[in-house]
Write a structure and sequence with these properties.
This protein has helices spanning 2-5, 22-28, 33-48, 91-104, and strands at 54-55, 62-68, 71-76, 84-90, 107-109, 118-120, 127-128. The chain has 129 residues and is α+β, with helices and mostly antiparallel strands. The chain has one domain. The strands form two sheets. Strands 4-3-2-1-7 form a five-stranded antiparallel β-sheet. A hairpin with an 8-residue loop joins strand 5 (107-109) and strand 6.
Length: 129
């Protein structure tokens, strides 16, 4: 996990992505090197505005990004601050959590929830950003 833990870059004066929280570094230990690299690339692309994320239905500015077909990245983007990688999950874990939320009545799955979008009780869809 040395590649992820070693986050400082010599020519990175204006940080676009914050240092990874310890819990994310630990989570990334369960992913392959290629998947870890994809997580880094999608977070940096989102921070630059080169990648689109799905705004999560939460008052906080959380976005869902797809690093690979099977790996999702949850980031937070606060105005004027670097993007923070909050969590990295397998698609199958996301699907399980969404199914549990549906059973509790918290959300209804959208027909295209495979892209990580869900609808809230009022049927509002996550906003693309």
């Amino acid at each position: 996990m040395e590649a992820v833990a070693r986050q400082a870059r010599a020519n990175d004066a204006a940080r676009l992505v914050a240092d990874l929280p310890g819990r994310v570094i630990v989570a990334l230990d369960h992913f392959s090197e290629a998947e870890r690299d994809a997580v880094r690339k999608v977070a940096e692309a989102f921070a630059r505005g080169d990648a689109v994320g799905t705004r999560m239905p939460d008052p906080a500015p959380y976005y869902l990004l797809r690093a690979t077909p099977d790996v999702l990245v949850i980031v937070r983007r606060d105005e004027g601050a670097p993007v923070i990688v909050e969590d990295v999950v397998w698609q199958k874990v996301w699907d399980h959590l969404a199914a549990d939320a549906c059973l509790r009545g918290d959300v209804r799955p959208a027909s295209d929830h495979r892209d990580g979008r869900t609808r809230d009780r009022a049927g509002q869809r996550g906003v693309e950003h």
